[in-house]
Amino acid sequence: MRNRRTTTSALIALTVLTATASPLPAAAAPACPTGVAGAMTKVNDYWLAHNTHPTGLDWTTGAYFTGDMAAARALNSQQYQSYAATWANGVHYALKGGQSDTNANDQAVGQTYIELYQQNPSQSGDITQINQSVTSMVNSSKVDDWYWIDALFMAMPDFAKLGVLTNTPADFTKMYAEFQHTQQGLFDPNKGLWWRDASFAGKNIYWSRGNGWVAAALARVLDVLPANDPHRATYVQTLQSMAAALRAAQQPSGFWYVNLGDPTQYPGPETSGTAFFTYALTWGINNGILDAATYGPVVTKAWNAMASTSVRSNGALGYVQGTGTSPSSAQPVTANSTGSYGVGAFLLAGSELIKMGCTADQAG
Fold this sequence. Notes:
The chain is mostly helical and 364 residues long. 55% of the residues lie in helices and 1% in strands. It has 14 helices and two strands. A hairpin with a 4-residue loop joins strand 1 and strand 2 (193-194). It is globular. 53% of the residues are buried.
């Protein structure tokens, strides 16, 4: 069994790895949308005011807190940081099914547990359960646990973060084996997009949020993965391939519709997929993986669409497709459609834009 103690050298390594993912110099950054920090604050303050005592352990909660933590860092907000810490302490850093739980959806909360532990290992709660959950998968010969693409966002960053934190290269190896199995069955190299699960393979149905989960997962993994990891190039190339496809699929409004393969199916704004794509593409720009001149206008257009259409005057975030598995799920998507995972995605996107140099007073 691995040593799960956080050593000083491991924390230093993580800091160095994170530092290598530095934003582009200001002179190289593309034009920014306006009011990024303000929109993020408005949306998250509304969410906190209406969700004062979160106790969830499911993937919706896990996805939200990835964004809340990113916003806490980007906006230097102790309020957002404390909100995540209070939740994690209140649920005792637990997985829904305990340390034997290997369901990717249940592992999503582990990302925030690990981040909180990294920030304050002497006072934060224990990460035993997420560590044991990942370890049990590493020690198993199974490689088909992630049979739906949402799982990549929920689980992959846990493996990457724990691999760095505990200096366990086996975590990276297992992560790639699981990813490769999923990619072989569900990635369409001709389109540069993913089918949600085997029931969609071969069809012209490329669910927006499902592809958003993948793009965001790649960005979150690459953000901490060692530069010398033998499979890093595969993750980079996959994100680049997706980026080209997403640029072509973006609608004139700036949104991506629910079916990337056929925008005439349930056409109209959808925030969660759009926000995850904005996050991943902006991360790619910030880290030199994507060309700023090519993709800067894409992310600016997407953010402006969400800020002007999805963010309501009171801070509620609308046009978030409800939980489901396909473009047809939870239709119709309206201004009143919302969800914690959509808020998390929006905060992730805004946080990367701030890293790119997009402050509240910058014009696009």
